[in-house]
Amino acid sequence: MPELPEVEHVRRSLEPHLVGRRVAGVLVRRACVIEGPRTPRALLVGQRVVRLARRGKQMAWVGDGGGVLVVHLGMTGQVLGELEGMGEGAKPGTAAEAPARVRGSVAQSVAKTYPPHTHIVWTTEGTGGGRVLFRDPRRFGGVWTLKSVAALEERWAGLGPDGLDAPVGELAAALVEACRGSARSAKAALLDQAVIAGVGNIYADEACFIAGVRPTRRGARLKVAEAERLAVAVRSVLAAAVEAGGSSLRDYVDADGRAGEFAQRHAVYGRGGEPCVRCGKRLKQATVAQRTTVWCGGCQG
DNA sequence: AGGATAGCCTGCGGGC
DNA sequence: TGCCCGCAGGCTATCC
């Protein structure tokens, strides 16, 4: 499932090939995934992409005509670039399923065939006839069309500091502030995008483990030192996952067909009942903040 | 008011 | 073997 590292991975692989390119056309195959105006113009047709930005799990395409597209991948969303200059192995993907059928050369992209659940297809100007696909089987994700960069800033003002890019001190301060007098658990605060943007279920559990904080811990009882350890842990676990090309479920395969390296390094996520990598005790599993949660009763106090 | 919950949606794996 | 059910979970609307 895409979390911040997967989105950043996609953004980085798309950026050098999409920025500077003009959008030639768009095909909307399922309009309900779009919020806001759905006209070609609103979908950046005729505009040159000048920037690919990211805040938390959201990615934004900024056009030179002032238009902005916000792409959110939700649980199962993918942005697949088939652009000039992108090698066979360079296409971004956040596949939770085998990517074999979504791979294809740029030449193949001329054919109007799409992987299942492809909702939007952008074509780009140029001799290569490149295109970018948005697909999302479960449709928890979507695309928002905004009128201006100001509207994007307004939208992103509702998000907390970015878990990867913001200074660790800012993350810690945001956590302390969000937990002050709050009845909710440390994990619930970590999952709140308005507190820290980009932490999902996987990295919330991993960060709690690294910081030695029990996910069930009431936020109000968190010591400042613990909030600081959580902030450092969030940053380090996200940075490591980005470095490894993102992680996902056990069957995660990136666009090169390689299994995500980071998936093998989850210390707690998906390992309920298995021995703790640090102390060997049986990892506990329960529902915390409405999410499956795994932690070590020995290492996380 | 703030925190908990339901619902959205499809693929897949376990169990019968 | 095949089918069915439950689970996976980010986010919003609604409930308490």
Number of E-type strands: 11
Compressed to H and E, one letter per element, the order equals: HEEEEEEHEEEHHHHHEE
Shape: elongated
Oligomer: single chain
Strand content: 15-25%
What is the terminal separation in angstroms? 28 Å
Q: Which structural class is indicated by helix and strand composition?
A: alpha+beta
Rg is 20 Å
Q: Major β-sheet, in short? A: 5 strands, mixed
Helical content class:
25-40%
**Secondary structure tally, helices:** 7
Strand order of the largest sheet: 2-9-5-4-3
- Outline the low-pLDDT stretches: 88-109, 248-263
Average predicted confidence as pLDDT: 86
Attribute tags:
alpha+beta, elongated, five-stranded mixed beta sheet, DNA-binding, 301 residues, 25% helix, 7 helices
Write the layout of secondary structure elements.
Layout: H1 4-18, E1 23-28, E2 34-35, E3 49-55, E4 58-63, E5 68-72, E6 78-82, H2 106-109, E7 118-124, E8 131-135, E9 142-146, H3 149-156, H4 168-179, H5 186-191, H6 201-211, H7 224-243, E10 284-288, E11 291-295
Parallel strand pairs: 2-9
Antiparallel strand pairs: 1-7, 3-4, 4-5, 5-9, 6-8, 7-8, 10-11
The structure holds a DNA duplex (16 and 16 nucleotides).
Could you explain how this protein is built, in words?
This protein has 301 residues and is an alpha+beta fold. It is 25% helix and 19% strand. It has seven helices and eleven strands. Strands 2-9-5-4-3 form a five-stranded mixed β-sheet. The protein has a four-stranded antiparallel β-sheet with strand order 1-7-8-6, covered by helices on one side. The chain has a two-stranded antiparallel ribbon with strand order 10-11. A hairpin with a 6-residue loop joins strand 7 and strand 8. Helix 1 (4-18) crosses helix 7 and helix 4 crosses helix 7. The chain starts with a helix and ends in a 6-residue tail after the last strand. Residues 88-109 and 248-263 have low confidence and may be disordered. It binds a DNA duplex (16 and 16 nucleotides) through residues 1-3, 57, 72-76, 96-97, 117, 136-141, 182-184, 188, 191, 193, 200-201, 249, 251, 289-292.
